[in-house]
Amino acid sequence: MEKHAVKRDAVANSAVENTAVEKIVSLLPSATEIVCALGFREALVGRSHECDFPAGVETLPVCTAPRMDPAGSSLEIDRQVRTLLREALSIYDLDLGRLEALQPQVIVTQTQCDVCAVSLEQVEQAAAQCLRDDTRLVALEPVSLDAVWDDMRKVAAALNAPERGETLVTGLQARMEAVAARAAGLSRRPTLAAIEWIEPLMMGGNWMPRLAAMAGGEAVLAAADRPSPMVEWEALREADPDAIIVIPCGFDLARTRAEAETLRALPGWSDLKAVRNGRVALADGHHYFNRPGPRLVESLEILAEVIHPADFSFGHKGAGWVLMV
Q1: Which of 153, 206, 260, 325 has CA 20 to 30 A from 143's CA?
Q2: Is the CB of residue 287 less than 8 Å from the CB of residue 302?
Q3: How high is the pLDDT of residue 20?
Q4: What secondary structure letter does DSSP report for 242?
Q5: pLDDT (tens digit, 9 = 90+) per residue, 217-243?
Q6: Measuring CA to CA, how many Å separate 65 from each of 92, 96, 119, 143, 293?
Q7: Do 200 and 309 fall within a single domain?
């Protein structure tokens, strides 16, 4: 196990030997999108159960499975996750037999959140049990927007293509800066509550407050580059934001619509400024916002449309987000 940990740390700091990478396994959706954006789609040989973009990756062999029922409500999922963590159990299973059969040269995983994907410890144990000594583990840690860019460079370096990483990051940053420059010229900066989970109530942290600022708004009840905080309903009532966007992690737009009905039952929900003014947006939190990869650019565009609807229109309304009615 130790030899794999050393190999992982080496990849994080320098490019490995200049050989072609032909077999990659990605164990989280954002990593799959990064690998594909870097031009290595054909080298992907395995994925997590949630990887579904770009189109076609869903045909790849699945290497993980959840131990909870992902079809439950936000409250039910939270209870299942807490039970598993309380019992010191992993939330996901890793298919060792499939990994052994695939024998990837590079595995991309993460260290940020055991609720989001298989843990790094699980992957290191699997590497020690059934993979070659030279298998390279790339552990992403997207705690902030800057860290997302660093993760893209890290993946590119592990795939012996650091120049592709710089090209990808530069292009994505330019698109974001164009949105931010337009937003900076607007006179108003509405406050925004980004609800990342409904029961219990959680606000979007990490990169979300910075994206809100770039979109011409001001996030409430969460700080940039800090974990997403649990908040009490009374705190949201007191903040009374100008706009609200509901982006439950792992929920597509249809599930977000259904789950958001829970919010209507909260005491005083209809008295919130955002509710009275029709400024509550429901968004696809599965494909946007909660995937720290290339589509954070589209997530920023959605935020700009929600915060400043008269000034921004990128065509996401109706597909990526809708107004709560």
Answers
A1: 260
A2: no
A3: 74
A4: S
A5: 999 999 999 999 999 999 999 999 999
A6: 6, 12, 13, 24, 22
A7: yes
Range of the domain at 315: 187-323
CA 215/CA 176 separation, integer angstroms:
9
Amino acid at 214: M
Q: Quick one: which of 159, 176, 167, 214 has its CA closest to 192?
A: 214
Which residues are bridge partners to 24 per DSSP? 44, 106
- What is the rounded CA–CA span in Å between residue 45 and residue 94? 15
Total of domains in the chain: 2
**Distance in angstroms (rounded) separating the CA atoms of residues 199 and 230:** 10
Write the single-letter amino acid at 75.
Answer: L
Angle subtended by helix axes 296-307 and 162-184, to nearest 10: 10
Q: Is residue 6 predicted with pLDDT exceeding 50?
A: no
172 found inside a domain: no
Q: Looking at the structure, do residues 243 and 123 belong to the same domain, yes or no? A: no
Considering the domain architecture, whether residues 27 and 155 belong to the same structural domain is answered as yes
A 10 A CB-CB count for 309 gives 14
State whether 286 and 205 are in the same domain.
yes
Last residue of a domain, one of 98, 125, 160: 160
Cβ distance 21 to 134 under 8 Å? no
Give the domain-ending residue among 143, 160, 177: 160
